[in-house]
Design brief:
Elements: E1 8-13, H1 16-42, H2 46-71, E2 74-78, E3 81-86, E4 89-94, E5 98-104, E6 107-112, E7 117-120, H3 125-128, H4 133-148
Antiparallel strand pairs: 1-2, 2-3, 3-4, 5-6, 6-7
Helix pairs in contact: 1-2
């Protein structure tokens, strides 16, 4: 807890294998679009420009999908709130509402004092392609230390 910098205790993103898939999903089609545009500029005709435009739209779609689902997803533990950026939205959970944390199939699950559960997809087995036990242990250590100090309840 002494490692708090600018109010941020820790940030966890999708694991390295998941990020690699995201970069490949974004970068592969982008390279294809660049090649298509190089071909369009070397053969100035409508068909080449159309093909390059379609390749660019395809690359933009894949890039946006990879960013939205894998590259922007993160869990931030700050001094005031827990921020969970998931593909389906962002949740901000004040520490005062947290009662426990557990690891589920879809990521770290934050249990609240009113019985609700919030999931941080960044620690999901599916998003990372590997088990998240070690990364979750770091998160659980921070959460439990915070709760035992009396700042979470």
């Amino acid at each position: 807890m002494d490692d708090v910098r600018d109010g941020v205790i820790g940030v966890w993103r999708v694991g390295r294998p998941g990020r690699l898939v995201g970069y490949v999903l974004a970068g592969g089609p982008a390279c294809g679009a660049l090649v298509a545009w190089a071909g369009a500029f070397s053969h100035l005709d409508a068909q080449s420009a159309d093909s390059a435009g379609i390749a660019t739209a395809f690359a933009s779609g894949f890039g946006f999908f990879a960013w939205w689902v894998l590259l922007r997803v993160r869990l931030e533990l700050t001094a005031d709130v827990i921020v969970m950026v998931n593909p389906w939205g962002t949740q901000r959970l004040p520490w005062s509402r947290v009662s426990a944390v557990s690891l589920g199939n879809w990521g770290a699950r934050f249990h609240t004092t009113d019985g609700f559960t919030y999931t941080a997809y960044a620690l999901s087995d599916l998003a990372a392609g590997t088990r998240q036990d070690e990364r979750f242990a770091e998160v659980r250590g921070v959460v439990e230390a915070r709760l035992h100090r009396g700042q979470g309840l």
